[in-house]
């Protein structure tokens, strides 16, 4: 990280708001981090996850090479769409977590993507998973995580960490919080919109994420809706918004790759 650039950026922010007013900034819309800090925080989260194998049972890449080939192929289609801003700056590494009871995926700052087997098995087509992956990629690419951390922890603490003035313990605690970070409704809506934008140039159905939320709605009828949805925009609204954005962008992709996706699921433990 360039220390001088970071100090100048923080100084400019203080000039814009007044030093005494810095704590009062609506930091939900402020991201004080340079890109290198996203990468550093992502590495810290990766280390936290790797150090907790009882909670995060990551499938070995060599032992499950064929399953990872499917996941990486889907990710590559999204990342190479020409729409991901930090395609070349972030690492975009994928990991599969073995837990069939969790319908979730998350992406850390810097592009480390974790997908639970429960989610993969819950979905029915490759375009559905691509839609969810596009949503998670957007959280990293749009830098929602570091923006949300700025809001939660404040400029002073995070700027001290960025400058190396806080203990490694403090940095590790913040990195750990990223694993279960809850995004604002506006961030979730933005990620939905960019999922469509990322998939639109591909052969996939660009509204794959809508299929995911529709299935969640159907599951809710059986009382099986995931708890995390309680803090998110309503699934029905998200289905409508995602579909409308696909129409607005005139996306033409129709591929679902159903047979390939069934192969993928059979490779999972």
Task: Determine the mean pLDDT.
Answer: 82
Order of helices and strands: HHHEEEHHHHHHHHH
Which structural class do you get from the secondary structure elements?
A: mainly alpha
Strand order of the largest sheet: 1-3-2
What is the overall number of helices? 12
Tell how many strands the DSSP assignment holds.
3
Could you tell me how far the N terminus lies from the C terminus, measured between alpha carbons in angstroms? 40 Å
Largest sheet: 3 strands, mixed
Coarse shape: globular
Low-pLDDT segments, ≥5 res: 1-28
Radius of gyration: 19 Å
Characterize the structure shown:
There is one protein chain. α6 (144-153) packs across α7 (155-162). 39% of the residues are buried. The chain has twelve helices and three strands. The termini are far apart. The chain has one domain. The chain has 269 residues and is mainly alpha-helical. Helices cover 56% and strands 5% of the residues. A hairpin with a 4-residue loop joins β2 (105-107) and β3 (112-116). The chain has helices at residues 3-17, 35-50, 65-79, 117-122, 126-141, 144-153, 155-162, 168-179, 185-199, 208-221, 235-249, 258-266, and strands at 93-97, 105-107, 112-116. It has a three-stranded mixed sheet, sandwiched between helices.
